[in-house]
Design a protein that fits this description.
oxidoreductase, alpha+beta, FAD/NAD(P)-binding domain, Glutaredoxin, 27 strands, monooxygenase, RIFMO-like, 3 domains, FAD/NAD-bd_sf, globular, about 30% helix, oxidoreductase activity, acting on paired donors, with incorporation or reduction of molecular oxygen, NAD(P)H as one donor, and incorporation of one atom of oxygen, Alpha-Beta Plaits, about 500 residues, eight-stranded mixed sheet, six-stranded mixed sheet
Length: about 500
């Protein structure tokens, strides 16, 4: 094999996956068709769960000041994300180009190789490996790998070449996006969660240096087959028809169009090919979830792929990637379609909006919707009633006091390895995990939290590299002891 893993696509998902693989000690090559990053930023931040993942890997300081806000929305209806423990609407005002730059730097620092201007044009997939053919500045090249991961977007070449079906619904409308400087006498009235108007919906938010992001959805505009990109004149004309405001005197830094098509791959793995991010699921960009769910795909897949390459993965570990992430993708598509109806529907949706607004005032309904959009409610696996409430869920943020002083739960996951958090200084727990010391770090630390906190009453936690809890004591939980849980997720003990 030329390289154990090839990743096609140097967007946020592919770059984060490359970094995760390098943390797992696996050589990885990233191919991207563009000669250089586009510099364009459809996304302007990431959700609460993606923020936590970046924190777990020590990346948040690289973004500079990270601004979060508990105020958000669901389909344009205000929603308080602070109803969740550690909940917020996500990191705001961070252009996707900045996120890609941070993740590219991280991946290359760890030893990943990124080859730009390499376009995948051929693929042979088999149970024991894959071969990809790429057009490069120096001509065509063939590369072999044990696994190939398609992170190449909604029009994924990898997905199509692997023969993985991508069913769903076609786009029903066309929307415009533009970053505009100097419009409307120096600024556009902010509409951060969108404004419904008789003819459609508009959204606007100030960016840096006098630039405004505008999104226009004019009702009754079906998607068009375009032989050339959308122009700023089209955007300005649609904005004027809906708002009566003239932004045509501004200068567009870039302009784009998009739709509300919704599709999901039927399988996230076929032989040696896997899919992640938009290659696995596409949807209306509601709530900034696309980039964030792709990063979560990568976090789930990276350590499992590394374990498989190294040969210590227990049977079926790699198959849990599809089993765990495909349902998450299906829920993503459901919530973005629902938001599309609330956001973009006509007068016939007003009763639905009124009912939703009432329901969202109920604490339980608010927690449910906030959990779905933020990604904080994801739970992998099923557990009997009465089990520990953290089983299958994310490790909550909490302050700890360890042997070396103050620390946090997230800081224990910097290395990308599994972690056994011994919160009660129990020597039996540490002894049980010792045979897995090459794959699982044992950390003895006590929580610094008031009674009733997320770790209250918990003696120990086994945490996977992606930050999800695989075993907890005490609390009943599934009928499995710690060694069995270690074997389930980290393979046989070392001799």
């Amino acid at each position: 094999m030329d390289v154990p893993v090839i990743v096609v696509g140097a967007g946020p998902t592919g770059l984060f996956l490359a970094a995760e693989l390098r943390l797992g000690g696996v050589d990885v090559l990233v191919l991207d068709a563009l000669d250089r990053p586009s510099g364009q930023s459809r996304g302007l931040g990431f959700t609460a769960r993606a923020t936590e993942l970046f924190d777990m890997r020590g990346l948040l300081p690289r973004f500079g000041t990270v601004r979060t806000d508990t105020r958000g929305h669901f389909g344009g209806i205000p929603l308080d994300y602070g109803v969740l423990d550690g909940g917020h609407f996500g990191a705001r005002g961070i252009p996707q180009a900045r996120t890609e730059a941070v993740l590219a730097d991280r991946a290359t620092e760890l030893g990943a190789e990124i080859r730009r201007g390499w376009k995948a044009v051929g693929l042979v997939n088999g149970p024991d490996g894959a071969e990809v053919e790429a057009e490069t500045p120096a001509g065509r090249r063939r590369l072999r790998c044990r696994f190939l991961v398609g992170c190449d977007g909604g029009h994924s070449f990898v997905r199509g070449a692997a023969g993985i079906a991508f069913p769903g619904t076609a786009a029903t409308r066309e929307m415009f996006l533009a970053d505009v400087a100097g419009a409307a006498g120096g600024g556009i009235r902010p509409r951060p969660i969108g404004e419904r108007l008789p003819g459609g919906m508009v959204m606007s938010a100030p960016l840096a240096d006098g630039v405004d992001r505008v999104i226009v959805c004019e009702r009754g505009t079906p998607p068009r087959r375009r032989d050339r990109p959308v122009t700023f004149d089209e955007v300005a004309a649609a904005w004027r028809r809906l708002t009566g405001e003239d932004i045509g005197g501004g200068t567009a830094h870039w302009v784009s169009s998009f739709g509300d098509a919704t599709h999901q791959a039927v399988a996230y793995r076929k032989d040696s090919v896997l899919l992640a991010g938009d290659a696995a699921h596409t949807h209306l960009p509601a709530g900034g979830q696309g980039l964030s769910v792709g990063v979560q795909d990568a976090a789930n897949l990276g350590w499992k792929l590394a374990a498989t390459v190294h040969g210590w993965a227990p049977p079926g570990l790699l198959d849990t990637y599809h089993a765990e992430r495909h349902p998450v993708g299906a829920r993503l598509l459901a919530n973005t379609r629902a938001q599309g109806l609330l956001y973009l529907g006509g007068e016939e949706t007003l009763p639905l909006r009124a009912v939703f607004a009432e329901l969202m005032e109920l604490p339980e309904a608010g927690r449910h919707l906030a959990g779905r959009v933020s990604g904080l409610d994801i739970r992998y696996g099923t557990f009997p009633d009465g089990g520990h409430p953290l089983l299958g869920r994310r490790l909550p943020p909490a302050d700890l006091v360890g042997e070396d002083g103050p620390t946090t739960t997230f800081a224990q996951l910097r290395t990308g390895r599994g972690v056994l958090l011994d919160l009660a200084a129990d020597p039996d727990v540490r002894d049980a995990a010792r045979p897995w010391a090459d794959r699982v770090r044992v950390v003895t630390a006590a929580p610094r939290e008031a009674p009733g906190g997320p770790l209250d009453g918990t003696a120990a936690l086994l945490v996977r590299p992606d930050g999800h809890v695989a075993w907890a004591a005490p609390g009943g939980g599934p009928p499995v002891a710690l060694p069995a849980a270690l074997r389930r997720w980290f393979g046989r003990a070392a001799r």
